[in-house]
Automatic annotation (TrEMBL):
It comes from the Eukaryota. Residues 48-167 form the RNase H type-1 domain. This is RNase H type-1 domain-containing protein. It comes from Brassica oleracea. GO terms for molecular function: nucleic acid binding; RNA-DNA hybrid ribonuclease activity. CDD domains: RNase_H_like (cd06222).
Length: 171
């Protein structure tokens, strides 16, 4: 048993010895891990739409915002029937821009499925019947650091479309 205890002590001592300091660790492969954020914040995107029917008493407006962190917000509103579907689209843009300003969004990308609305803001002189509304949008733009309006296919604007229709049908 004395021999067994001595052997056990020797094994314990070897197991707990520090590795020799002169070992060359430079030959070991090194691995560098690059950390990349899973999601890069984007400029908030606000999709807008309006719902208008010729014999209706109200127009419906809707917007759907995805902020820089990907959180979604929405708004819907019924208002007195606009003169035309295009007037309702412009009213929707003005309302959405005012809402973004009021919740302190400083940069925003508005998206609409109405190409005439985009043309109206790009070529305002071609749309004299909307001069007042265009001027109001230009004043609202001054409240933002960066604001843009672009056209998207209708199939990509389904949430804002549904909100606008819901607002109109609720009357």
């Amino acid at each position: 048993t004395l021999q067994h205890a001595s052997l056990e002590a020797e094994c314990w001592r070897k197991a707990n010895e520090k590795e020799e300091a002169n070992e060359d660790h430079d030959d070991l492969p090194t691995t560098e891990v690059e950390t990349v954020p899973l999601w890069i914040p984007q400029i908030p995107t606000c999709q807008i739409d309006a719902s208008w029917i010729n014999n209706g008493s109200v127009s419906g407006l809707g917007w759907s915002l995805k902020d820089e962190m990907g959180v979604e917000y929405f708004g819907l509103r019924a208002c007195n029937r606009s003169l035309s579907a295009l007037h309702a689209e412009m009213e929707g843009l003005l309302w959405a821009a005012a809402c973004m300003r009021d919740i302190r969004i400083t940069s925003v990308r508005f998206e609409t499925d109405c190409s005439d609305l985009v043309d109206m803001t790009t070529n305002p002189m071609d749309w004299p019947a909307f001069a007042t509304e265009i001027e109001e949008f230009q004043r609202l733009q001054d409240d933002f650091e960066d604001v843009r309006l672009s056209h998207i296919p209708r199939c990509r604007n389904s949430r804002a479309d549904a909100l606008a229709k819901d607002a109109r049908t609720r009357d």
